[in-house]
Amino acid sequence: IIDTDYYLNKEKGRIRFVKGIENVKENNDRLYELGTLLNFSKDAEHVGNKYCISGLSPTEKSGTWTYGNVVDFFFEIEDKLDKDLILFMEYSICGEAQRVKLLVNGNEITDYVASESERKEVVIPREYIENNELLLRFELPDARLPGNGDQRELALFIRNMKISTEFSEMH
Questions:
Q1: What is the C-alpha separation between 105 and 39, in angstroms, rounded?
Q2: What is the pLDDT of residues 62-108, one digit of tens each?
Q3: Rounded Cα distance, 85 and 23, in Å
Q4: Which whole-number Å values give the CA distances from 110 to 47, 48, 79, 87, 123, in the listed order?
Q5: Which residue in 127, 124, 102, 129 sits closest to 15, CA to CA?
Q6: What's the CA gap between 161 and 149, in Å, rounded?
Q7: How far, in Å, are 82, 100, 102, 108, 143 from residue 79 at the CA level?
Q8: Under a CB-based contact definition with an 8 Å cutoff, are residues 52 and 71 in contact?
Q9: Sorting pLDDT into bands at 50, 70 and 90, what band is 171?
Q10: What is the pLDDT of residue 46?
Q11: pTM (predicted TM-score)
């Protein structure tokens, strides 16, 4: 996981990473092919955790918990982008409800309350994506201690994620 110091250059509407991301780009660690199903469990073929900059706990057998109130993912999309994207996620929650705010490259695209295990589809408007770079920020103000002795503040237990140009099922 790399250092997460970055800022948003609102004049150009582009994310600028101060530390760390240059090395990631050089190694192509976060190149993403649209439609690839990312799995957040141990021993997965396409591991989603590699796209996380900050905010995920260590991978568990069937998924990964978010850790704290903010989770950042960075994707460098390989494909040509000429239309809106669809983000698919499959997750469970910690507690009875979790507020979720999703920002793409600094632009809020949704704000909702997750109240159960679910599959979620969210449209990412094309105009929010520049140079095929995608910074997804999940703000999770209701992250909490699970009450089982675990000292992490948890919100979402992520199983799968996919970015595509089509509405469809996750699998």
A1: 23
A2: 999 999 999 999 999 988 888 999 999 999 999 999 999 999 999 99
A3: 26
A4: 25, 21, 24, 11, 9
A5: 129
A6: 28
A7: 9, 28, 22, 23, 34
A8: yes
A9: very low
A10: 80
A11: 0.82
